[in-house]
From TrEMBL:
It comes from the Bacteria. PANTHER family: SLR1258 PROTEIN (PTHR34387). The chain crosses the membrane at residues 6-26. Coiled coil: none annotated. The keyword DNA damage does not apply. This is SIMPL domain-containing protein. It holds the Pfam family SIMPL. Keywords: Membrane, Transmembrane, Transmembrane helix. It comes from Chryseobacterium limigenitum. The keyword Signal does not apply. The lineage of its organism: Bacteria, Pseudomonadati, Bacteroidota, Flavobacteriia, Flavobacteriales. GO terms for biological process: DNA damage response.
Amino acid sequence: MNKNIIAIAVASLGFIIGLGLLGNAIKNRNKSENTISITGLGTKQFTSDLITWSGSFSKNNADLKSAYDELAMDRKVINDYLISKGIKQNEIVFSSVDIQKQFRSYNDSNGNYVQGEFSGYNLTQKVSIESKEVAKIENLSRNITEIINRGIEFTSSSPSYFYTKLATVKQEMIASATKDAKERAEKIAENSGSKLGNLKKATMGVIQITAPNSNEDYSYGGTFNTSSKEKEASITIKLEYEVN
């Protein structure tokens, strides 16, 4: 008899505890559903303050030393030219010389590729400049034909543009995106007759830097445009609030 009473009591207690746990689960579930998630956008337009530019030049000769001497002469002409245009010597960087053996190649009567006899050496060197004088280097890159007119086989690359204060821009955009998201959340809560509660979660997207008014695609890992001097950066912030 006593054993039956104890069993019933234990079962009843377990039932009561179960109801309590179920009630808390339902309460917590409802509470977790009573949230709002909003994404805010922060943007900033700015002008690049750093530019890089490079070009390459080459010489061909059957004799390696002669090819190297000729390349050295061209290197001096290029260096002197850049200095004459107001470029500082410490901004001019010449790479190591790339040496490639050349062979006379042809296709035989069966159409097979045949590497023929050695025909000489091709030596190539690259010159690059990094400067905060953006306008000066832009002008230099546009008028590089002056070097070609001096008999130098020179190939110029397009300039690349950067911004040295990107960390400050990012902080400003994060603040702007956070403010935008919060204002949107407050408006939605107000229109639904509720009040915004505590912030539960904040998630930041990656920074995207594109040319202004362009149709460049955003990248999952972030886009960084270097071809445009004028840039537009954007970042998103997703906020999750409790709603009372």
